[in-house]
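[job 4471] stage=fold_predict status=RUNNING
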Amino acid sequence: MIGHPSGLPLKVALNASIEDTSNPLYCYTSLDSFQGNSGSPVFNFYSNKVIGVLVAGEVDYKYNGNCYYSSVCKIPYCKGEKVIRMEEIIKNFNQ
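[job 4471] inference complete, writing structure tokens
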């Protein structure tokens, strides 16, 4: 995935995997993403093809009473980051 997490300069998130493919419209991934990454393209590392677009994810920051901290999502204890499949995006443009 390539995007601008939390308004930061461009970041490339590598070493992610697809975790749940049970839904034909989207999948869940282990991407390291934050607010601001929505709409970012998600690539297949080996083919360099866009396989989807990041649309949702886990809570990024939690408050501990004094400050906010970056929460860590460890699969299987959370769903992961939601990516709409490219096939669904293309199908909706061709209607």
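[job 4471] summary: The two ends are 27 Å apart (CA to CA).
[job 4471] exit 0
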